[in-house]
Amino acid sequence: MNSVERAFIARSQFILKQKVQWFPGHMRKGIKDIGRTLKNTDLILEVHDARIPFSGRNLNLLSRIASVKPILLLMNKSDLINNKDKCRIEEELFARMGSNNVPIKHIFWMNSLHSNPIYGGYDSKLMTTIISSIEKIANVGSNNNLFQTDDHYNLLVMGIPNVGKSTVINRLRNVFLQKSGKATKIGSLAGVTRSVLEKIKICDNPKKIYLYDTPGILEPSFHRLETNADIEAMMRCAVCGNISEKVLEAELTADYLLYWMNKMANYQYVEWFGMDKPTNDITELLTYGAIKFNFFEKRRSMTTGETNIVPQLSSVADKFVYAFRDGSFGPILLDEDHLRMTK
Ligand SMILES: Nc1nc2c(ncn2[C@@H]2O[C@H](COP(=O)(O)OP(=O)(O)OP(=O)(O)O)[C@@H](O)[C@H]2O)c(=O)[nH]1
């Protein structure tokens, strides 16, 4: 960090300048479908994004389900965080179980995108570990009545939109049944899966395992946004792509990312945008970006009728957020402050 960066004072709070309302019909239907599918389910496999282990988990819905079905937590996209953070995250997640009423039986880490181990990618031991955890749960006497049959296991895959539920399912199926192709649809935008899908077989041996894919259901507090913590959690989800880009303007999501990077004294964006010092001003940042990436468009003025060349700020905002999502700024744990709070 240079002396200018050391002297920089970051914004102390993120102010949400847009009203947010989003609870699409398919999510309401999804909750009903999940309720109906529960009776045929042995366990819940909750999939979440490793960059936001504490933000966005739908604890409300999970706590209701946890009273009837055991929950396994799969932290996906773990290629986008540092390995050294995993233990601290696990400790904190287990520490919170008492207060949030969502007891987790096991936590698994997965990078479902790359099978090559040099990317820290899919480890064939993972499935064996998942199976042995399921068997351990099934073999506890008090859980006997939770499992439908001894012959196979049915898991319901749950999670907020775009955490990689479908990718996880396809990956597990590809590796363990050597089936190529996709059993369930994948998309880089939130909200691809819209209803509980057919049962998908992912494993034959030593036991048959079936998964139900479900639509991503967002944390309901995002519809109320009563506290700063709710706003920060929602914005972190937006940065990770869990909230439809139709709901939050690209500039707003980019503004939160800028606020967060400054707060964490992470100034990697300065060079990326071709600037000479950090800024708190999103318009300044995006204007630099428009010049660097040559993002301009012709726009006709409604009042004078003249055509002007103006920067395409929303395209630059998208580029910034996508670069973060791709890992261009290195591994980033957006919820790092949740770990610090407990130190
Ligand atoms: N870096 C990285 N990206 C991933 C990983 N898993 C999934 N993705 C990407 O995340 C995006 C969302 O994946 P999906 O599998 O469609 O997510 P989903 O949770 O099923 O999404 P919905 O249907 O919207 O609920 C896609 O662009 C995937 O390529 C991972 O382990 N690492």
TrEMBL record:
Keywords: GTP-binding, Nucleotide-binding. Residues 28-220 form the CP-type G domain. GTP binds at N76, K77, S78, D79, N111, S112, N162, V163, G164, K165, S166, T167, G216. CDD domains: YlqF. InterPro entries: G_CP_dom (IPR030378), GTP-bd (IPR006073), GTP-bd_ortho_bundle_sf (IPR023179), GTPase_MTG1 (IPR016478), P-loop_NTPase (IPR027417). It comes from the Eukaryota. GO terms for cellular component: mitochondrion. GO terms for biological process: mitochondrial translation. One of its GO terms (molecular function) is GTP binding. Plays a role in the regulation of the mitochondrial ribosome assembly and of translational activity. Displays mitochondrial GTPase activity. This is CP-type G domain-containing protein.
